[in-house]
TrEMBL record:
Protein's name in the database: TIGR02679 family protein
Domain of life: Bacteria
Domain (Conserved hypothetical protein CHP02679 N terminus): residue spans on this chain: 32-247
Domain annotation DUF2399: ranges: 270-422
Classification via Pfam families: DUF2399, DUF3323
Length: 428
């Protein structure tokens, strides 16, 4: 601070008063208004009153000081060459911007930051546009910007570069190997890292850009695995698996001997993603109809009751392995008959299957009559809102009935019907 101005630091109350003046000026955008003196001590009020050429009692009684009053008094002192704003900046040692000026400056800095992204990666405009829009899903990104804009820029551009080097369609790569190949650091996209979260966000926004309306950013392990899998990235190639019986698989050498032996011995296989990615084709050993259930106990019963029929089990929500298996089967021209649980999550799964494979999917024992036969006592009132996302025409009748009854229905109640359907179809 200039020696000339040290009097304000040495005299009690002035620096405290100037901080109040500063905030009032920033708030109003001009030198106006008043500040309260309630928190000031008697000695502080006396010092300020002396500067204003007022009695301490009168100032204490008023309990406030106006900025215009102080600036007017300033002109009758040895500091008349200062405006009040200049005095505040000189004593606080920093330029003082109004809140509107500061907001405008921040906006200009944000625009400059975004423009750098557009210039660096024009192909990422779909992502930069979303970040610029400042929706709910990007608030955390702007928090990172405020913490360290330079670090965020580096992470965003690294993610965009990696996006341009995703595995080719039908190819899969483990996440650490993908990170090593694209960034030189195998842990760059690890769970919990800034880059890992940004990569997921870019994939999430790309899905929306393509018209797939994901309900939210992936949070659970299954949601993260699935989103990465859509882009050929495997976070864990053993965790994701499905069970199947009655299928033949081929690799570059022809029919896979393990799958062939399983068909000959009517054996159920638990196939992880690690093995699926080595294959080139999967087809039923018999016919072109594939039966799909999500419940493992129901699946086990059907396998015992109906030998040879090509049946697979997803074990609940579709994981990456399920999608890869189904992709192979659809490519082989198969018809998929799917039966799931009658709860909001089960219907959403059925709809997703229909979205992906269209006319090659048929819903199996998933009508209103089947729902009534499978009713349980589980209340789903708290989850019923999930049915708002249901639009598949074939499921509207059961959706309406589920809204009315507000209870779940489970496949266990339909096991006998499912077995009979397969036997009838296969003439067993």
């Amino acid at each position: 601070m200039n020696d000339r101005l040290r009097v304000f630091r040495d005299e009690p109350g002035f620096m405290k008063l100037f901080l109040l003046f500063k905030e009032k000026y920033r708030s109003l955008g001009k030198m106006g208004g008043t500040v309260s003196l309630r928190s000031f001590t008697d000695s502080e009020i006396e010092a300020i009153a002396g500067f204003l050429a007022q009695s301490a009692d009168m100032l204490r009684q008023k309990g406030k000081v106006s900025l215009s009053e102080f600036e007017k008094a300033l002109q009758h002192t040895s500091f008349s060459d200062f405006s009040l704003l200049q005095l505040l900046e000189a004593t606080t040692g920093e330029p003082i911007l109004t809140k509107s000026e500061q907001e405008r400056l921040l906006q200009e800095e944000e625009e400059a930051f975004l423009q750098r992204l557009y210039d660096a990666y024009p192909s990422g405009a779909w992502w930069w546009d979303r970040i610029r829009a400042k929706g709910v899903d990007v608030r955390w990104i702007w928090s990172l910007y405020r913490e360290d804009a330079a670090a965020l820029f580096d992470h965003l551009t690294a993610c965009c570069e990696a996006f341009t080097k995703l595995p080719d369609a039908g190819k899969y790569e483990k996440l650490p190997l993908f990170a090593q190949r694209t960034t030189g650091n195998p842990h760059f996209f690890d769970s919990g890292t800034t880059a890992g979260k940004l990569l997921l966000h870019s994939l999430y926004i790309d899905q929306q850009h393509k018209g797939t309306q994901l309900a939210r950013m992936p949070r659970t392990a299954e949601e993260i695995h699935e989103l990465l899998g859509l882009y050929g990235i495997m976070k864990d190639d053993l965790w994701s698996f499905l069970s199947c019986r009655g299928f033949l698989a081929e690799n570059e050498h022809g029919i896979h001997p393990v799958w062939e032996a399983a068909v000959k011995t009517n054996t159920v296989l638990n196939i992880p993603m690690k093995e699926l990615v080595k294959l080139e084709r999967i087809r039923p050993a018999r016919g072109s109809t594939v039966w799909i259930v999500e419940n493992s106990s129901v699946y086990s019963t059907i396998v015992d009751e109906v030998p040879d029929a090509p049946i697979l089990c997803t074990h609940g929500q579709f994981r990456m392995a399920s999608w890869v298996m189904l992709d192979f089967l659809v490519q082989s021209g198969c018809s998929l008959y799917y039966s799931g649980d009658f709860d909001p999550e089960g219907l959403v799964m059925a709809q997703r299957l229909k979205e992906r494979y269209g006319e090659q999917v048929a819903f199996w024992q998933m009508d209103a009559k089947s729902y009534e036969a499978a009713l349980s006592e589980e209340d789903i009132s708290g989850r019923i809102s999930k049915l708002e996302a249901m639009y598949a025409a074939e499921l509207q009748e059961v959706v309406s009935l589920m809204r009315e009854k507000k209870v779940a229905g489970y496949q266990e109640g339909l096991t006998a019907r499912l077995c009979e359907d397969i036997k009838r179809s296969c003439r067993i």
